[in-house]
Amino acid sequence: MDRGTRRRAWRLGALALVLVLAAGVGAGLVLRPTTDLRLGAAVTDCHPLDLVDATTGRAITGIEDLAPDPVAGWLYLSAFDRRAVAHELAQTGRAQTQGALYRLRAADLERAGPLTLEPLAGAAPVRPHGIALSADRRRLFVVDRANAPAAAGAAIAPRLRAFDIAADRLVPAWTLDHPGLCRANDVVALGPDRVAVTLDHGACDGWRRGLEDVFKLPRARLAIAGPEGLVRTPERFVFANGVVRMPDGRLAVAETRARRLRLVSPDRSGQEPGAAAPGTETPDTETAGAKLPGAETHVPLPFPPDNLTPAPGGGLIAAGPPRLMRYALFCAGWAGVDTTPSAVAHVSGQGRVTPLVAGALPGLSGATVAAQLNRHLVIASGYDRGLNVCRLTTGRP
């Protein structure tokens, strides 16, 4: 072997060693658990609160979203066991496991638990994802993933449902089935029959959706919807997730893969969406109405935001898993990863970010939503059981 060949072989060997070491370090960083917990100045005493379904007797698992009603003292919860549904789809192509909508009183958050909750009657069958209350708190809007897959191996097709709240039950008001809802994620009320819905990907299924995630492509959308149909706004997002309405009328959209919030103005054309019958619009239909004045704003966050909830004083509370790779392993149950950290922050109406929770919450992994109800900060995870409840020393974080 001549000197040049030996030099090339040495370089290749050194490169291989560096790659192996880098892979090992990367795997170590991903698999290394987070054990510390840092709380904001106004947050104290975070503890788990177990919940039990009164009908099945099973632990309530996979609380994806929360909707607080501070006036009446209620907290609405949407839940279904995502791992069970994914397993059923993989094994048989049909999902049998259903979820439920629940609510609990603010006073219940003071109890040690476990709390037994009755599912709200009138919604079954349902696999609720994002939920939101109307401004008068008399109607609950739900992104529902209870539809059967369109074909073998296909994902569940979401629908949009509106319920009137009557005592301890829900009364169906209207339902929208529309191909444009294939990636519907979260919802926020704009009126009694008008909502904004985030579409977390541009592609409905398959490898194109994977490319959006890997390369952080801005293909996600926002749609304005009602019982007659929907139209999409012109903006494009990097994985549009949670959405809330700010006091100035703008919508705050969580861009999970971009680790930021984006404030945009909804369509204010004065026309109800969907003049055409549901299903007749093309997937790329745009809104034609005028937009509210005001520059579009980006608010960087120290973690990838998942869901958003309105906070007292006009701001919002964002929650999400700070380590996305570990979170993905946790959701899939791979590599022995059974815990993952959480992050929660308050964002003021002026865009000031105040961290509230960062790290390993006791009894809860991978926070996907947090909401304030009175002097409590309630945290939930779409892939774990129950809630985590923290006390707030002030009325506003």
Please, could you describe this protein's structure?
This protein has 397 residues and is an alpha+beta fold. 15% of the residues lie in helices and 36% in strands. It has 4 helices and 26 strands. The protein has helices at 3-31, 82-92, 207-215, 324-332; strands spanning 37-39, 43-49, 51-53, 63-69, 74-79, 100-105, 115-117, 128-133, 139-144, 159-166, 169-176, 184-191, 194-199, 221-226, 229-232, 240-245, 251-255, 260-264, 297-300, 308-310, 316-320, 342-347, 353-359, 369-373, 376-380, 387-392. The strands form 7 sheets. Strands 1-23-22-21-20 form a 5-stranded antiparallel sheet, with no helix packed on it. Strands 2-26-25-24 form a 4-stranded antiparallel sheet, with no helix packed on it. The protein has a 4-stranded antiparallel sheet with strand order 8-9-10-11, with no helix packed on it. β4 (63-69) and β5 (74-79) form a beta hairpin. The protein is globular. The N and C termini lie far apart (70 Å). Residues 5-29 and 268-295 have low confidence and may be disordered.
